[in-house]
Amino acid sequence: MSVAVRVIPCLDVKDGRVVKGVNFTGLRDAGDPVELAARYDAQGADEITFLDVSASAEGRATMLQVVADTAEQVFVPLTVGGGVRSVDDVDRLLRAGADKVGINTAAIARPELLTEVASRFGNQVVVLSVDARRCPPGVSTPSGYEVTTHGGTRSTGIDAVQWAARAAELGAGEILLNSMDADGVTGGFDLEMLDDVRRAVRIPLIASGGAGRPEDFAAAADHGADAVLAASVFHYGTMTIGQAKEALRAAGHPVR
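Given the sequence above, the corresponding structure tokens read:
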């Protein structure tokens, strides 16, 4: 039996408010994180992802109180990321109500963190967040994609496909693949990037960045995504979670 494709709304939070921009810039307010999370839970979201988009860049911890308040309103798995640097950070987030923890910048700085977290809490807790883009001029990687950090503001020169594969070996239980080029543009997921990462990893793969129409979710699943994540289209009422699931179902993908 095929596993149901998960539909995941993403709450990008800055200063206690949900924000959304294009290619990580031009952020505008999209509402209260607790209220939005409760709305998406009621609409049938399979999971909710909460990202403190300024935590790494500003050198501060994820806002635990917002996480706790959100967790009280949500009855589906909650993934939380942003500013996670240690096993203790993960422990605090799990105690606050998170079910999984997203790690990006800290894992690049010290990859063994993935192993440490997986060893203590289990692989199912570890979500490696990969903010990937097609290599800009002056940067070259074998796959043509590089990893960025700090909310997409810093180039690393690290090959995104190779990094995803290595992270799976180190203990990541899931890969959240966010296309920097497609983020907020609503022109569809980067299917070529999805294909390349799907071939490199066997663990669950979450497609992120670019959803604009219900059909985009089905296309991502066609290209190997186990889950599809979006923000703008849900926050601003372009579509509902139900419409995304209906498109997946119409394309032959099982949904919950």
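The first strand starts at residue 6 and ends at 14. Try to locate this feature in the token string yourself.
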